[in-house]
């Protein structure tokens, strides 16, 4: 079977490819400000429509607030912040994947649609479990100390 070896992409070639791909976009953000505006719109959409996203924001805010209140080390607060951010980012990706799947298959059953949605939900679940484990490991000892010292 003949092997097609593509020539290395030159900057000019890359520019042409990117331009062609962006032709399919209904609209392209023309400035950094507009990019932030659309990103914020996505976050607001997820907040308004996804109950899990609202729960995760509440729990993450509580965990970060507690870690500051309990005077955890900066690196510990950072670890809680990273795991919290990961959960929220994956929840947004989960919402994006759900929308793309629904756009593609509409209200028909498809095994690949099921796999895509189940795996996206699984990613959120794994990140949430890890975040809970990390938060419990770092927050429980100072909480117990605080309660016992009362
Ligand atoms: N078009 C489809 N074809 C096959 N299975 C589907 C389809 N749409 C949804 N499902 C199944 O139903 C489940 C729930 O779908 P839904 O769109 O509510 O996603 P979800 O992961 O429950 O959403 P959320 O993350 O908001 O809780 C999916 O995980 C998947 O197993």
TrEMBL record:
It is a multi-pass membrane protein. CDD domains: UDPK_IM_like. Its cofactor is Mg(2+). The active site is at 91 (proton acceptor). Mn(2+), Zn(2+), Cd(2+) and Co(2+) support activity to lesser extents. PROSITE patterns: DAGK_PROKAR. ATP binds at residues 38, 98, 117-118. The keyword RNA-binding does not apply. Belongs to the bacterial diacylglycerol kinase family. This is Diacylglycerol kinase family protein. It comes from Aetokthonos hydrillicola Thurmond2011.
């Amino acid at each position: 079977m003949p092997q097609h070896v593509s020539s290395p992409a030159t900057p000019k070639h890359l520019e042409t490819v990117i331009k062609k791909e962006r032709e399919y976009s209904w609209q392209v953000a023309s400035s950094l400000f507009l990019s932030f505006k659309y990103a914020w719109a996505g976050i607001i959409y997820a907040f308004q429509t996804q109950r899990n996203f609202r729960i995760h924001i509440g729990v993450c805010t509580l965990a970060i607030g507690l870690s500051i209140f309990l005077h955890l080390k900066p690196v510990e607060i950072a670890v809680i912040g990273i795991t919290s951010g990961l959960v929220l980012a994956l929840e947004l990706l989960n919402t994006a994947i759900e929308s793309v799947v629904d756009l593609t298959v509409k209200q028909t059953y498809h095994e690949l649609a099921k796999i895509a949605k189940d795996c996206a939900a699984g990613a959120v679940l794994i990140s949430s479990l890890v975040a809970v484990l990390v938060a419990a490991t770092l927050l429980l000892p100072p909480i117990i100390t605080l309660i016992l010292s009362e």
